[in-house]
TrEMBL record:
SUPFAM superfamilies found in the cross-reference section: beta-lactamase/transpeptidase-like
GO molecular function: hydrolase activity
Domain of life: Bacteria
Keyword terms, alphabetized: Hydrolase
Lineage of producing organism: Bacteria, Bacillati, Actinomycetota, Actinomycetes, Streptosporangiales
Identification of the protein by name: Serine hydrolase domain-containing protein
Domain Beta-lactamase-related: 13-381
Signal peptide: none
Entry-linked Pfam families: Beta-lactamase (PF00144)
């Protein structure tokens, strides 16, 4: 391992090292802030399995859906400035969105996975997905799969073009441009990544077979029948889960594809270092991005219950995940933590009550269906270190 760890947070280092020792990691980084103090900044392993390139201090990694929290923050900042009303109709500033029964949709619906548009109605390529305004227009013309506001279902990729259109229409900028201009310009965090950053970024790889979790390990989903339904839905091309996760398809190279990385899909296109993602949450809970009252309102759960896409219980505020099966949080954080997970095991988390922020980014893709606990164990260790 390289980096530094405050002795009080040595439990985080122990877990991080054990993940490598158990064969659960190829390369990864973890960062923790306690207030404004960076108490953990660790990295290790291999950034690119093909070449053997080491993971360095400034190695960024694809963060998958951790992106959504950053995109949502951009949209919330504009609402805070009075650009639009969170609970007002989308058609006031996006008239075309009212097509095909969506005229009652509010910005809050877009930000909390209630819009009824969890997937595109046709296959979309990575090249097409790079044109954010056109993808937003396509969704605006599409019929919803449920009446907006009557249910929630995870909008794995479409979320970015829906929430991103809030940003574009009220700022004249794409999400990545707005984020760097307004609150992330000093951070190693990009939604739409320059080629020189792509060149030094970690390369994602399929997870290696790791030891099973022990019988006493915590489980986000206790019912094995639910796990079976999830596994079945994941491979069923007609299921909402499969359609939401796999369309647009990233194309050749998967999420290492430079076409995807340059475009910066605003639901799952961010590249960042772990310290940068943790610092984003540090600034967020400190009131340096949003006013405390804006954040508090955004953290209020708008939806909680069975997710029509993910089939298990999820809970969302305005763009932020709240503790549930889809945001599996140690008991110490289950009332106050928020953030977002990413496919393969990544996480960004903030806790205003504890004054704690955490980011963990691996390049070895975990399998959440089998209970990947790398992020959970790191988060648990960070909370334990506060006591």
């Amino acid at each position: 391992m390289q980096g530094h760890c405050d002795p009080a947070f040595s439990a985080v280092r122990d877990v991080f090292e054990q993940n490598f020792a158990d064969g659960r990691e190829l390369g990864a980084a973890v960062a923790v802030y306690a207030g404004d103090r960076k108490v953990v900044d660790l990295w290790g392993g291999v950034a690119d399995r093909r070449t053997g390139r080491e993971w360095l201090e400034d190695t960024p990694c694809f963060a998958f859906s951790c992106t959504k929290a950053v995109t949502a923050t951009a949209a919330l900042l504009l609402a805070e400035r009075g650009a639009y009303e969170i609970d007002g109709p989308v058609t006031e500033w996006w008239p075309e969105f009212g097509a095909r029964g969506k005229e009652g949709t509010t910005a809050a619906h877009l930000l909390s996975h209630q819009a009824g548009l969890p997937a595109f109605a046709r296959p979309v390529t990575a090249e097409e997905a790079a044109d954010a305004p056109v993808r937003a227009a396509e969704l605006a013309a599409q019929a919803p799969e449920w009446e907006p506001g009557t249910a929630h279902g995870y909008h794995a990729l479409t979320y970015g073009w829906l929430a991103g259109e809030i940003v574009r229409r009220h700022s004249g900028r794409l999400v990545g441009e707005f984020v760097r201009d307004e609150f992330a310009g000093e951070l190693d965090l990009w939604i739409g990544t320059p080629d020189e950053v792509i060149d030094r970024a970690a390369k994602l790889t399929a997870g290696r077979r790791a030891p099973r979790n022990g019988a006493d390990a915590p489980r986000a989903v206790e019912d094995d029948n639910v796990l079976e339904r999830l596994a079945s839905a994941y491979v069923d091309p007609g299921s909402a889960l499969n359609r939401s996760l796999n369309n647009p398809h990233p194309g050749k190279g998967g999420y290492n594809n430079p076409v995807v990385l340059r475009a910066g899909w605003p639901a799952a296109g961010m590249i960042a270092t772990a310290p940068a993602l943790a610092a984003f949450y540090r600034d967020l809970i400190a009131g340096r991005i949003l006013r405390p009252d804006t954040l508090a309102d955004a953290l209020r759960p708008r939806v909680s219950g069975t997710d029509r896409t993910m089939l298990v219980r999820s809970s969302f505020g305005l763009g932020y995940m709240r503790p549930a099966m889809t945001f599996f949080t140690p008991p110490a954080g289950r009332q106050s933590a928020f953030g977002h997970t990413g496919a393969g095991g990544s996480i960004g988390l903030g806790d205003p009550e504890a004054g704690l922020t955490i980011a963990y980014l691996p390049n070895s893709m975990g399998d959440q269906l089998s209970g990947d606990l790398r992020a959970y164990r790191l988060t648990e260790a960070a909370y334990t270190s506060l006591t």
